[in-house]
Amino acid sequence: MSTDPPVDPPATSTRGATEAGGRRRDLPAALLIGVLTLLLGFAFTVQVRNSDDDQVLAGAREEDLVRIVDEVSSRGVRLRQQIADQRSALRQLTSSDSESASALEEARTRSASLAVLNGTAPARGPGLRLTIRDPGDELRVTDLLDVVQELRGAGAETMQFDGVRVGLSTAVTGAPGALMIDGRPITAPYEVLVLGSPQDMETALNIPGGVVQAVGGRGGSVEVVQQPELVVDALRPLPDAQYAAPDTDD
Amino acid sequence: MIPILGLVAGVLLGLLLDPTVPLWLQPYLPIAVVAALDAVFGGFRARLDGIFDAKVFVISFVSNVVVAALIVFLGDQLGVGAQLSTAVVVVLGIRIFGNAAAIRRHVFRA
Question: What InterPro entries does this protein's entry cite (chain B) (predicted)?
Answer without folding.
Answer: DUF1290
